[in-house]
């Protein structure tokens, strides 16, 4: 039979071990909360800075899109952020602006034909967010595998529709390279905010051009 003092000692050790485990879990949770808070603060700051860019109110669509894609890529920490517009016949998407954070360069002009990517085009026509964690396997984006995803080493992508009024005019696209990435709700909300900014910029540009034309 174990001595009563020994039993008490063992119980105390067990309690201390349990307490240390709980403290370690609490520290980890606090660290995760701090990381999450920093992440949210970064997105909020990006949203604030974007709305203050002069290009967004100037009617200069090209520079506005450059500012938006750069801020989007850096804020969500993806390699590329781009804005694509549908043609009037809705048969293709043309890249109006893309920012590559690795190269720190802007580009434009790439074109995607609807007939080559029917599943993807059908999804965006429905006005849905395409948040593909594994873009190579996701049925909405796997059509891009050979001609787009693999050559550019894209593992995850998120596309958000751009609408002016009720009219679908294009998409904002965020492209992640490296290990597959699960898109957080806050990142999807930020991408939706970026999409709304693009709509606002287009409306502002059209209004200023209309006023200039009237004169």
Question: Would you write up a description of this structure?
Answer:
With 215 residues, this protein is α+β, with helices and mostly antiparallel strands. It has helices spanning 4-52, 54-58, 61-76, 118-125, 145-152, 185-214; strands at 80-86, 92-100, 105-107, 111-113, 130-132, 154-164, 167-177. Strands 1, 2, 3, 4, 5, 6 and 7 form a 7-stranded antiparallel sheet that branches. A hairpin with a 2-residue loop joins strand 6 and strand 7. Helix 1 runs antiparallel to helix 3, helix 1 packs parallel to helix 6 (185-214) and helix 3 (61-76) packs antiparallel against helix 6. The longest helix has 49 residues, at 4-52.
Keywords:
single chain, 215 residues, alpha+beta, seven-stranded antiparallel beta sheet, 6 helices, 54% helix
The proportion of residues forming helix, as a percent range, comes to 40-55%
Count of helix runs = 6
Which shape, going by the Cα principal axes? globular
Low-confidence stretches: none
Class derived from helix and strand content: alpha+beta
InterPro entries: GAF, GAF-like_dom_sf
Protein name: GAF domain-containing protein
Keywords: Coiled coil
Pfam family, one: GAF
């Amino acid at each position: 039979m174990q001595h009563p003092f020994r039993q008490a000692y063992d119980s105390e050790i067990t309690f201390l071990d349990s307490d240390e485990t709980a403290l370690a879990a609490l520290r980890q949770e606090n660290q995760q909360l701090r990381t999450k808070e920093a992440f949210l603060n970064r997105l909020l700051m990006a949203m604030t800075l974007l709305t203050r860019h002069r290009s967004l109110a100037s009617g200069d669509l090209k520079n506005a899109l450059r500012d938006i894609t750069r801020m989007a890529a850096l804020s969500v920490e993806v390699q590329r952020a781009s804005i694509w517009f549908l043609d009037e016949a809705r048969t293709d998407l043309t890249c109006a602006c893309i920012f590559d954070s690795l190269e720190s360069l802007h580009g434009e002009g790439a074109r995607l034909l609807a007939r080559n990517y029917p599943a993807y085009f059908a999804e965006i026509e429905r006005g849905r967010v395409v948040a593909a964690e594994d873009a190579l396997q996701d049925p909405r984006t796997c059509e891009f595998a050979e001609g787009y995803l693999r050559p550019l080493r894209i593992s995850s992508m998120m596309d958000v529709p751009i609408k002016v009024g009720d009219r679908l005019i294009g998409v904002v696209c965020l492209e992640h390279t490296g290990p597959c990435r699960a898109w957080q709700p806050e990142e999807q909300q930020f991408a939706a905010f970026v999409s709304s900014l693009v709509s606002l910029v287009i409306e502002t540009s059209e209004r200023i051009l209309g006023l200039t034309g009237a004169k």
